């Protein structure tokens, strides 16, 4: 079994930079599993900024839905893989799975259940979205709840868990 590290935090808390720093401790080639899609100009710019931080030692794998399969299919190809991020992944699942949140949560459980068979270290980035006000819209509440449950499941299965606040990482596990 290879090490699995979860990095969580709020928006713009430094979690992706911290996770990339953890991955930089591994020799190239490093894999970057991107779950986000450039659906608008702002997201395209955000993706470009993330790519600009990484150099040629990184190879990007884009997969918005089948992350467990993408990770398994690249085992041994990279010295480390970084998945960024869980919340974009579950948002994609929530909107595309016929079974909604229940099906998305089953995907998360299956994903975390496969950690013991990983041969390549995996660093996972997620957002902590449940620390604010209760959203007014039912879909927003469903997403917040799904994100919280997904983070709990992944954190329980991970070897290490960090939270970043104001650019500062704190090890929780």
TrEMBL record:
<keyword id="KW-0548">Nucleotidyltransferase</keyword>
<dbReference type="InterPro" id="IPR003203">
    <property type="entry name" value="CobU/CobP"/>
</dbReference>
<comment type="pathway">
    <text>Cofactor biosynthesis; adenosylcobalamin biosynthesis; adenosylcobalamin from cob(II)yrinate a,c-diamide: step 5/7.</text>
</comment>
<protein>
    <recommendedName>
        <fullName>Adenosylcobinamide kinase</fullName>
        <ecNumber>2.7.1.156</ecNumber>
        <ecNumber>2.7.7.62</ecNumber>
    </recommendedName>
</protein>
<dbReference type="GO" id="GO:0005525">
    <property type="term" value="F:GTP binding"/>
</dbReference>
<dbReference type="GO" id="GO:0008820">
    <property type="term" value="F:cobinamide phosphate guanylyltransferase activity"/>
</dbReference>
<dbReference type="InterPro" id="IPR027417">
    <property type="entry name" value="P-loop_NTPase"/>
</dbReference>
<dbReference type="GO" id="GO:0009236">
    <property type="term" value="P:cobalamin biosynthetic process"/>
</dbReference>
<feature type="active site" description="GMP-histidine intermediate">
    <location>
        <position position="50"/>
    </location>
</feature>
<keyword id="KW-0067">ATP-binding</keyword>
<comment type="similarity">
    <text>Belongs to the CobU/CobP family.</text>
</comment>
<dbReference type="GO" id="GO:0043752">
    <property type="term" value="F:adenosylcobinamide kinase activity"/>
</dbReference>
<dbReference type="GO" id="GO:0005524">
    <property type="term" value="F:ATP binding"/>
</dbReference>
<keyword id="KW-0418">Kinase</keyword>
<keyword id="KW-0169">Cobalamin biosynthesis</keyword>
<keyword id="KW-0342">GTP-binding</keyword>
<comment type="pathway">
    <text>Cofactor biosynthesis; adenosylcobalamin biosynthesis; adenosylcobalamin from cob(II)yrinate a,c-diamide: step 6/7.</text>
</comment>
<feature type="binding site">
    <location>
        <position position="84"/>
    </location>
    <ligand>
        <name>GTP</name>
    </ligand>
</feature>
<comment type="function">
    <text>Catalyzes ATP-dependent phosphorylation of adenosylcobinamide and addition of GMP to adenosylcobinamide phosphate.</text>
</comment>
<dbReference type="Pfam" id="PF02283">
    <property type="entry name" value="CobU"/>
</dbReference>
<keyword id="KW-0547">Nucleotide-binding</keyword>
<keyword id="KW-0808">Transferase</keyword>
<feature type="binding site">
    <location>
        <position position="62"/>
    </location>
    <ligand>
        <name>GTP</name>
    </ligand>
</feature>
<feature type="binding site">
    <location>
        <begin position="34"/>
        <end position="36"/>
    </location>
    <ligand>
        <name>GTP</name>
    </ligand>
</feature>
<feature type="binding site">
    <location>
        <begin position="9"/>
        <end position="16"/>
    </location>
    <ligand>
        <name>GTP</name>
    </ligand>
</feature>
